[in-house]
Design a protein that fits this description.
Alpha-Beta Plaits; disordered N terminus; alpha+beta
Length: 256
Amino acid sequence: MKKLTLSLITLILVGACSSSSNEELSVSREGSPPNQVVEYVWHYKDINFSEENLNMLIDEWNSMIDSRDYEMNGANILFPRGESAADFIWVMLWPSMEARDAAWDDWMNNLDEDWQNLINGIMKVDFDNVYAFKPTVKRTASVPNQSSYFENEFNFCNFNEGYGVSDLQQFESNFNTFLDETELNDGPDGYWYVMLEPYFEGTEENPLADYVWLSLWTDIDEKNRGYANYANTSLPTEGDTFSTCERYSFSGRAIR
């Protein structure tokens, strides 16, 4: 049997999302346990990759998942909006690491060979780049996204010398006040943000970020409006004062 491992992340992602209170939440499908694991699996396009073939594979993949009755809360695909080490990322949401491990063990023993035959020539899975995080939702969207499409942005951040967690907490408080005021003036929107805590260890060559902030929007127009409002405040300067971040943007599609 193949062993699927959670290896060191080399693509650093951070994003942001939030709610009008500081209550920590975990988002899940209605009637499902909250997500304790969000898992990112790198993929590469092959010679026969096309939107049509991808849609075919999504349908086949969902049928295979349904046939095994896995405890999976949902799945997305992320396409980079800039340079990226992966052509796209398959994302899976799990209620627990136990559910994740049980599903992967069954998949690798019973389904992976069929799946590899299906995707042959269309796309490739990179089992050396599979990364799991514990998500903590810090703010929920005031208007839930009714579409299968969305935008997200990962920020992998390290504290500048002399700064730490208390500065991040103060920034979050100021940021949430900004979001509250924006919603009061411009109306509610679909922005939310999440903190991601890795389930894997870093190395000396590739240390983990101090924090990972994941931001999500309904669409690119909402993201651009949000950034324009944000730029007209002191928050960008405040953020740059206490930490330095690498930013990675993606367009997303919910597939399950």
